[in-house]
Design a protein that fits this description.
129 residues, mainly alpha, 6 helices, elongated
């Protein structure tokens, strides 16, 4: 949740309600975090210097600081690394359990290894078909 708040606040200033609504939307209302948990995390991120209140706003809107942006980059790198490790594990297990699934997971692994530009181009090709 901490990472989500940082990423959302790096795109545009957000309120706690914006964060709750985004989680609700992304999970098709399967999970709606409590305002207390969101505002607690926002407070922790502010104390850590990762978020600040947007100046000149009538309501409290939060935006990532430069330190917050650095943390987002660290989180993204860690996330990509974790995805790759999980793809390798799943591919290995699939090769043992169901070789047909191993072929599909091999494609996922290759996509994870692609550059952002390569993924963008692949996405464009898929959307054209």
């Amino acid at each position: 949740m901490r990472a989500l708040i940082l990423v959302l606040s790096s795109r545009s200033p957000v309120t706690g309600t914006d964060v709750i609504n985004e989680v609700k939307r992304a999970t098709s209302a399967g999970w709606v975090p409590s305002p207390g948990s969101i505002y607690y995390l926002i407070g922790q991120l502010r104390k850590g210097g990762l978020l600040m209140i947007t100046p000149g706003s009538n309501e409290k809107r939060y935006i990532a600081t430069s330190k917050g942006e650095e943390e987002i980059q660290r989180i993204r790198q860690s996330f990509k690394s974790g995805l790759m490790k999980n793809a390798i594990i799943l591919h290995t297990l699939a090769a043992i359990i169901d070789p047909r699934e191993a072929a599909r997971l091999s494609m996922v692994k290759r996509i994870l290894e692609m550059s952002e530009e390569g993924v963008r181009q692949l996405t464009e090709k898929i959307s054209m078909t």
